[in-house]
Amino acid sequence: MSELFLKFARWSTSRGINIVPGFSGEKFSRLKDWPALATTNDMRLQEWAQNDDYVNPIAVAKTGETISVDIDDPKMVAKLPPIPDTVIVDTPSGGLHVHFKWTQDAGELGNCNILRVGEYCIPDKDGNLTTLAELKVHNLTVAAPGAVNKDGAGYIPRKLNGSYPKALANFPHEWYEFFKEHRQVALPRSASSHRKIHPDFESVDWFEWYEDLNAFQTNDPVEKNGFTLYTVTVGCIFKGGFHSQSDQDGFRVYPDGGIDWSCFATSCGWGYPNATLEQVMDYLEEEGFERFPYHIYEDTDDDILLENVDIDEINDEEPLTPVVLESIAVEPEVPTAKDGEVEEDAVEQEPITEPAPVTPVEPEEPKRLKDGTIDMLAETILNILLRDPEGIFSNFALYRTRFEARAVEIEYPPLNNTVRMLLAYVKELKKLPNNDELCDFITYHSACKEYVGKSEVVAYLGRLVDKDQSYTLDTTMQRFIEVVDLVTEMRVWKSGFGLMKDKKDIKGARTLLREQWSKAAAISGDHGYKPGAIQDPEHIQALKDSFARYCEGTDDGRRFITGFPSIDSSSLRLGLDNEHAIVIYGPSNNAKTSLTLSMAYNFCKQGKHGIIFVGEHQAETVEESLAMLHSQLPKFRTRFTIPPISRFQSADKRLKPTAQDLGNMHEVLTDLGGMLTLPGYLEVKNINSIGGTLDSIYSYMEASHKKYNWDFMVIDPFDSIVSEESKSDQNNGWVDGKVAVNALFDYTRDYQGGRGILAIVTAQILSSPARQIEKIQADGESEGEEGDVMELKSILRQDKQIQLFTTISQRFDAALGVCLTKKHGREGILVQGRTRQGADFDWLRFSLDSNSWYASEVQSGFAHRGSSMSVAGDFKTDDFPVDLE
After folding, report:
1. Predicted TM-score of the model (pTM)
2. Strands 712-716 and 758-764, how do they pair?
3. What letter would DSSP give residue 721?
């Protein structure tokens, strides 16, 4: 685990700076789609930290959040306006990185450079001006505090008045004026480019990427008519040497930033007369050089591609029938757990001492939104939330992530901005507001201090009328999600059709569709399946993406983190694109349930929604166990310890918890109900209460999926779905077990039209190996003695000895054996019995918390293939003590 990365990344994210991981010595991230992945989310940081290669935290500027000023020339500091108290980082080259909160001024400037201030400038050897300072406003990176360069020198934050600043200053207006006066004016785009260059792309970054990989080295540039020529030291990169016909082969860089390759030798099969940048990168990738990971063209960036696309302009032979909300039949509500309580100690609003008055806006006639449109559905949702904020909060928490991701599609500006402010309120105060509370938040709260559209939003809220209170959140929210997904899908189809019609670009159109399908779970199908031969372009691109995710140590939202580092950092990758039919087997009363509940809890910490079907235990008992798991979070454990549940249940008054213990437990439960620390919804159902069969489980999940969007399911134990009659009949029991195994395996693939679902089931081993394990547990001289552990591992690897389900280890994706090392002990081992594709995970030792029974890894049973990269040089972590408080 890369503890340094996690330590330093948290220092930055606690100050609002978005982070992505980078390799040691690098100032960029190799993650695919890194701009979208940049985050302050601690769970994502912990996931990245599992990859030992990730050493450097990389700061990413984001519109509306934070920006960075990269000062390359130390002399520029004296020419800039005064630097306020904010995060200031000394770079190894003598420059500075200065971090600010985003403001409207910064947004107006955008990403820009300063090459000259008055007469002061620094030409390079060819007379070209070098960058003195760079304003990075959106999706540009700098090495964050704690990173190191290739020589091992560190990026060190400055202390102000003896301590590190705990917050960023706003981007000063004086700096805005300075950059506005001296910034570089972008060159006009050249008509020579066939594809429009992405606004964040710079050719120098592309050259540096491949030069750092030793793919080639460029010579000094030569200005030509309409482009700059960069020849390379090896001659023609395709030949690997010089052609006898020409020594002027090289890259042509156009004024718009576009690049292509030109070879003047007619004998060159690749580069004559020219090759596109994509063809160059394809060739270099085949030669073993990692592909440039950032956007080069606008048409590869979804955010730009879908900008200003009006779905109403689609000319279909059969126009779409507008969706009318009134026609939606209200579906019967699926029984749910009781709404959680709102936090009593929610963060208080932070009033500005003298808030700037909101300029009144003249009342205007309310805009009439068309029935069934995205905007009308969004306004209905807004009214529902403001109507009963306390009562609806935990229900809204189920949809919050999905709603937030789709809110960008709201077109009416006052409504869009109001929804943004409401989501900001929830993020800051951990509850929903009513209308007046939202207006006060927008007007006075420090989180909205720099927002210039306050008056528009407050005016909109003032004229908002809740005309029809018959709509429910479930029905309206589900329809909103459906309509947004339909509209975005149609946009991509339209864009793809435009590429085929206007540019004859079939491959580009297919790429757009494939990228959309990979994002839309509703139509993703079996995520890795593509019809046709492996050599087909779609297959090759899918394989490239798959291997890239493996190398990056990350994956999309379809991956699951168990909380056991030996599993999560191995090639045993639990997720909807990999192993997602799992059996955990072992003797009875040997921590199978504790281990499974700990995994399910960790899935929910990722925001996954899951349902646990229990047979041996009552649902209420399992819910109490999950509540105890929640009490082991550091935010609670560092302040108090919840007694074990046995003391709450004890009839002995001497053992009963104190009133303080009960109050602490109430705090834990209030936090659990808020669904912020544990954002994934977790339901517990007794199997017999819904029918007791596998078909009844399927029916319940299908009926409730629209609301809960299930990601995983647990059946504990699996034999709960087999009738007692079948269990007592050896032949019938074996047949029924095989049918159940095959049916559940297929269900994990076919769920929701091929979206898939992860399933974990528990099963008991046969009595003979169970007795062998029990004997070793009883005879061991000391818990966890190595000889005993070896014997236990050997027995657990016999994954065919599972009661009723003898075929499950062959059919399911992974089989994991578990047992305690000593009877009634607190330590155990988890052993890989079999996986369908093999994995480098072998075994691990875990420990059960004495109070909560949370299972955590204490020893890895295999030597993780660590990185050869490390933090080099003289930079010591003691020079940069991280104070997150």
Report:
1. 0.50
2. parallel
3. G
